[in-house]
């Protein structure tokens, strides 16, 4: 009697809920679209909310407050500790093939991917460098010398470390959105923390003149979308990078094998022509 064939590999997250992941993505996407439209049609909302923190000497209230300055520094150091912890825990879990803090290496890798794709690549490398929106403390209406642009207007003249979107709000929100998708029993708590801590970080940055309200709302929504998308790719997709033995991954590799082989042969032929053997 022959032994039964082994069952195909399945995503590592046995409790992954595709419906929940889709709901989070759709709600976040809808929030981003609604916020973009509202703050574009009514740009005065951004100016009005930021002006609530503007003092008579044209400084921002939380920018001169030792308490809020200190709390921001605590959060910034916390982000550094979080990123270092991700690397250490992920490496330990992978080398030992045992969970660290009840999370396996696949989940640590997932949370690391969320932090790289969201706060680092999308926010700090792309949006903040390309969007061109000046910060509240830099625009004429709030005591600066630059021109205000609505949230979806990319024609601003800022060229480096601009206002859209808030990097610190994005970092705070992503920590807890990633934890929400990586855990099961603590998931509702982490969703709540992603929103509440994101709002707290937004309050600090708006009150210091560092970002507009729309920058903060968009940051939270975009991080939720990215976390949901990466969770779907890692734990729900047949092309998950975590399960190379899955049938979907095998099909992709097989489909790419012949074109890659042909490209390699052509490259070698070209090298032989431009640099013939001696």
List the SSEs and their pairings:
Elements: H1 18-41, H2 44-51, H3 66-96, H4 105-130, H5 167-182, H6 187-207, H7 213-236, H8 247-274
Helix pairs in contact: 1-7, 3-4, 3-5, 4-5, 4-7, 5-6, 5-7, 6-7
Strand content: under 5%
Q: Could you give the order of the helices and strands?
A: HHHHHHHH
- Count of distinct strands: 0
Shape: globular
Number of helices: 8
> C-alpha Rg, in Å?
23 Å
Which class of secondary structure composition applies to the elements? mainly alpha
Query: How many strands, which pairing sense, and closed or not: the largest β-sheet?
Result: none
Low-confidence stretches: 1-12, 245-249, 274-278
- Note the gap between the termini: 60 Å
Mean pLDDT: 87
Helix content: 55-70%
Structure keywords:
disordered N terminus, single chain, disordered C terminus, globular, 8 helices, mainly alpha, 278 residues
What would you note in describing this structure?
The protein is mainly alpha-helical and 278 residues long. It has helices spanning 18-41, 44-51, 66-96, 105-130, 167-182, 187-207, 213-236, 247-274. The protein is built from 8 helices and no strands.
């Amino acid at each position: 009697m022959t032994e039964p064939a082994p069952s195909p590999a399945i995503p590592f997250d046995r409790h992954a809920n595709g419906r929940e992941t889709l709901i989070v993505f759709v709600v976040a996407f809808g929030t981003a679209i609604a916020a973009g439209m509202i703050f574009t049609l009514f740009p005065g909302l951004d100016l009005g909310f930021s002006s609530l923190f503007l003092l008579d000497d044209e400084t921002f209230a939380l920018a001169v407050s030792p308490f809020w300055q200190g709390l921001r520094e605590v959060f910034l150091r916390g982000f550094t500790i979080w990123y270092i912890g991700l690397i250490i825990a992920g490496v330990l879990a992978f080398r030992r093939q045992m969970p660290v803090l009840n999370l396996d290496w696949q989940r640590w890798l997932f949370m690391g991917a969320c932090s790289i794709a969201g706060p680092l690549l999308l926010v700090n490398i792309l949006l903040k460098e390309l969007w061109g929106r000046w910060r509240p403390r830099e625009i004429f209406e709030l005591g600066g010398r630059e021109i205000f642009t609505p949230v979806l207007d990319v024609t601003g003249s800022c060229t480096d470390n601009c206002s859209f979107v808030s990097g610190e709000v994005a970092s705070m929100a992503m920590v807890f959105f990633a934890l929400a998708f990586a855990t099961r029993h603590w998931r509702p708590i982490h969703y709540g923390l992603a929103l509440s801590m994101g709002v707290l970080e937004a309050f600090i940055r708006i009150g210091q003149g560092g970002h507009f309200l729309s920058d903060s709302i968009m940051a939270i929504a975009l991080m939720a979308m990215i976390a949901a998308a990466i969770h779907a790719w890692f734990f729900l997709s047949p092309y998950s990078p975590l399960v190379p033995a899955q049938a979907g991954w095998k099909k992709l590799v097989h489909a790419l094998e012949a074109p890659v082989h042909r490209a390699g042969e052509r490259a070698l032929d070209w090298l032989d022509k431009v640099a013939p053997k001696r």
